[in-house]
Amino acid sequence: MTANKKGFTLIELLVVVSIIGILATLVTANLNAARSRSRDAVRKADFKNLQTALRLYYNDSGSYPPLSTSIPWGAEWSTSSNVYMSKVPNDPLPGQAYTYAPDAANDTFTLTACLENKSDAKCDKDASGNIIACSGDSGCRYSVKP
């Protein structure tokens, strides 16, 4: 009597399932890295828009907004005569925030965010050339001035 050998052995099935698991892990890791780079690109674009709005404000008033006149993150930013941004952007990652810090005379400012990709060329560096990390985060600090 001859045995009909159709189908896969248990070992063959285990090998295939293992390979699929490894590939799924690699794809997920790459997808997460792409998402963090995408959020970093959004942060940089947000800062360009904020810089433009702050320059418009400076042109109208002769100074940047003082810290006491905080920028309304997530809301419209306007004065009685001008709308500078219809919606001031928030950090794309919940739990993180952008910061705005004018100097004492309100003639310059610093916008700061935390980038997720520590190898980004725009990460802030200290005097020794070391990347400045965000507090309590694995990312790096990113700041812009006018």
TrEMBL record:
GO cellular component term of the entry, any: membrane
Keyword Membrane: yes
Cell compartment(s), UniProt: Membrane
Keywords: Membrane, Methylation, Transmembrane, Transmembrane helix
Residue ranges that the Swiss-Prot or TrEMBL entry lists as coiled coil: none
InterPro entries reported in the protein's UniProt record: Bac_GSPG_pilin, N_methyl_site, Pilin-like, T2SS_protein-GspG_C
Membrane topology qualifier: Single-pass membrane protein
Residue ranges of the TM segments: 13-34
Domain spans labelled Type II secretion system protein GspG C-terminal: 35-114
GO biological process: protein secretion by the type II secretion system
PANTHER family (alphabetical): GENERAL SECRETION PATHWAY PROTEIN G (PTHR30093), TYPE II SECRETION SYSTEM CORE PROTEIN G (PTHR30093:SF44)
Protein name: Type II secretion system pseudopilin OxpG
The species this protein was found in: Candidatus Woesebacteria bacterium GW2011_GWA1_40_43
